[in-house]
Amino acid sequence: GDLLEIMGKQNVRLIVNRVDKAMLKTVKLTIDDVMDNSGLPLIGVVLEDPNITLAASFCQPVLKYARYSDASRAFRRIALRVQGLNQPIKLR
Question: What is the pTM of this model?
Answer without folding.
Answer: 0.80
